[in-house]
Amino acid sequence: MIPRALFMLCFPLLFLGMEGTLEASSDKSDSPSVAASLSHRGAKIGQKVELVISVRGASDPVIKCIDRPPELVLKAIRRRQLLHTGEGDVWLFRYRILPTRAGDYEIPPIRIIDGSCSAETNPLFLRVSRSGEPPALTARELSLAVNIPPSLGEEVLKAAPQPTPRPEPTPKPRDGRPFATRAGSTLQHLLKDFWEYPGG
């Protein structure tokens, strides 16, 4: 059984992963702390998706290139920004992704270089489809986001409550009567409603 304390820690991330994005981060004591996230985990073809990379504990971070599938067109939104916060300085890199084809895509780890130090994010995942619905959260995504073994991620997902499936609407049977018959029936109902109307 999964420990209750760990489940309560990971449970909010399940809804974050279902509705928005999970943050892929890397945090080592001898290197900058790097995190990357997508504005959407599911998108339609041509829908703009924002990629945000934040770097802490760095003096002059640089991203030389971002590998990604050719179906994902990448463009920098603005130059890197330096934000001064109460917890230290944060560098922000922002990019716009434009998917051109449906499919399940993985953006490989993004490498950040800061002088002689470097760090990488975890991979990011994006599903592009006609509906734009995000994929179900996987044990791999969860384990990368909260730094737990994939097997434990599977236990967390099994213990989480499952969303109620939406019932599909029942198709209305086609009226096979001739047009004249259907039109006469409709007119008869309209006249009946008119004469029985209580106002006057």
Relevant terms:
single chain; 200 residues; alpha+beta; Immunoglobulin-like; six-stranded antiparallel β-sheet; three-stranded mixed β-sheet; 4 helices; 11 strands
Describe this entry's structure for a reader.
It is built from four helices and eleven strands, in the order αβββββββββββααα. It has helices spanning 4-19, 139-146, 150-159, 179-195; strands spanning 24-26, 33-38, 42-43, 49-56, 72-76, 81-85, 88-99, 103-107, 111-114, 117-120, 124-128. It has a single domain (4-149), classed as Sandwich (Immunoglobulin-like), CATH 2.60.40. The protein has 200 residues and is α+β, with helices and mostly antiparallel strands. It starts with a helix and ends in a 5-residue tail after the last helix.
- In the CATH hierarchy, the architecture is Sandwich
Into how many domains do the coordinates divide?
1
How many helical elements?
4
- What is the residue-averaged pLDDT? 80
How many E strands? Answer: 11
Order of helices and strands, N to C?
HEEEEEEEEEEEHHH
Give the N-terminus to C-terminus distance in angstroms.
71 Å
Fold blueprint:
Layout: H1 4-19, E1 24-26, E2 33-38, E3 42-43, E4 49-56, E5 72-76, E6 81-85, E7 88-99, E8 103-107, E9 111-114, E10 117-120, E11 124-128, H2 139-146, H3 150-159, H4 179-195
Parallel strand pairs: 3-11
Antiparallel strand pairs: 1-2, 2-4, 4-7, 5-7, 6-7, 8-11, 9-10
Helix pairs in contact: 2-3
